[in-house]
Amino acid sequence: MEFDPKTPQFLTSDRSSFASVSADDRWPVIITGAIDDLHRTVATVTDDEKAKEGKRIIEKLATMKYELQHDRQLTPLDDDGASDIASYNKELEQRGTPKWHNAPWLYSECYLYRRMETFFSLSKHWKGYDVFGRQKMSTFKSSRPAVLELAARYRELALEAESGKNAEGKSAEEVAQAERLLFSEMCEICLWGNATDLSLLTSLTYEDIQKLQGSQARQASQKNILVNDIDSAFDVLQKARAEKKADERRVDIVLDNSGFELFVDLILAGYLLSAGLATTIVLHPKRLPWFVSDVTPKDFADLLNSMVDPQAFYTAADDSGKTFPQLSDKEVEDVKFLFQQWSEFHQDGKLIVRPHSFWTTQGCYWRMPHVAPELFEDLQESELVLFKGDLNYRKLINDAQWDPTTPFTTAIGPMGPKSGIRVLAFRTCKADTVVGLPAGEDEKLRQLPGGGGSEARKWAWSGKWAVVSFSDGKA
């Protein structure tokens, strides 16, 4: 806490903030979903000892839900041998052991998922079990139309680039402009891929998810990017390519959601490598199940495995017995093309998966230089570090009640100017905290239907609006 900014954080007791809505409405639904998932799995277990242990974990989840709904104090985490437990418990004490409904939103939400993890990590038979795994893959399966659309588009672009057709008859300036536009398109796909955050969109239908992900939806959403620094990011990558052509040029992606969003992150990674805008991509997943849909190393493997035989994956009946139409030969080829390319990049060491325990600690990224100096120094080696999603954004700026006109470079503190790290944050807004807006923008958005008026910043809760914010810590 000593390294955090002094600007106060959002609290779960603030009735005008999404922190309160989260604690009241979202978290009980998330814990209930975890209980239901484990019930289903326990019902299929034949080993008596494992089944009994699974039922004990269900009881622990139910106890935590009861404590949350009855506003009990947060209790110290049981020590599961991981290095972060002491830090969680020390901070809990420093914060005066708050109650669920009067706690800093960022700390208490991280605590919720870390406490759930202890139930499994301290077990004999359930270590590594992901209560959200089933949900993640079923949501990816329901993203079929968008996956097929993007796979076809990407394959077409890759084949054009290989044959040199995309540069035929064009001046160097026109080629550069076309590349800038393509980079922008890839980034926007990556930005709006975050629309399928499972921790928020718990009640969406299959059809709703499809509407969120298509190209028409992305084009319509372009006007909703309130801050757009994509061009600045392209400039630094293009400059690095020109000046360090023979050197390693690394881009890091601090991942957010699995499933469709991970799929679009890999589309962007493949594009950066193919276009020569990077020579290596380092992906940073979480080391444990986190915020429902965040990527773990297993999710990366599961996604690739689903693409080995897309026909089987996308036509298999779902839990209700509903069947799905066959993919065409071309659709199968498009998906397999991606699988082949990504697998080769991974095997060649150009696409690296590198988890770190820091990403599931309870604090903001202002702490990184002090509590994870080796990670901070590693990120300084990168040409660009892309932070995906709402939680990474909240952690970059400490989920604090900044004035929305505060410059992004100020709000990210030690990750900002002179840090040696170039930060690019892709964020669809799903929480109150926001910075870098032009004067008057927040007030204007509050006046829109459902915007919250003078009572709340409700416009920032829905994921309808986005920011793409850049800070050049190498300048």
TrEMBL record:
Its cofactor is Mn(2+); Ni(2+). GO terms for cellular component: nucleus. Its EC number is 3.1.3.-. Residues 23-445 form the Damage-control phosphatase ARMT1-like metal-binding domain. It is an enzyme of class 3 (hydrolase). It catalyses: beta-D-fructose 6-phosphate = dihydroxyacetone + D-glyceraldehyde 3-phosphate; beta-D-fructose 1-phosphate + H2O = D-fructose + phosphate. It comes from the Eukaryota. Pfam families: ARMT1-like_dom. GO terms for biological process: DNA damage response. Keywords: Hydrolase, Manganese, Metal-binding. One of its GO terms (molecular function) is phosphatase activity. InterPro entries: ARMT-1-like_metal-bd_sf (IPR036075), ARMT1 (IPR039763), ARMT1-like_metal-bd (IPR002791). Belongs to the damage-control phosphatase family. Sugar phosphate phosphatase III subfamily. Metal-dependent phosphatase that shows phosphatase activity against several substrates, including fructose-1-phosphate and fructose-6-phosphate. Its preference for fructose-1-phosphate, a strong glycating agent that causes DNA damage rather than a canonical yeast metabolite, suggests a damage-control function in hexose phosphate metabolism. Subfamily III proteins have a conserved RTxK motif about 40-50 residues from the C-terminus; the threonine may be replaced by serine or cysteine. This is Sugar phosphate phosphatase.
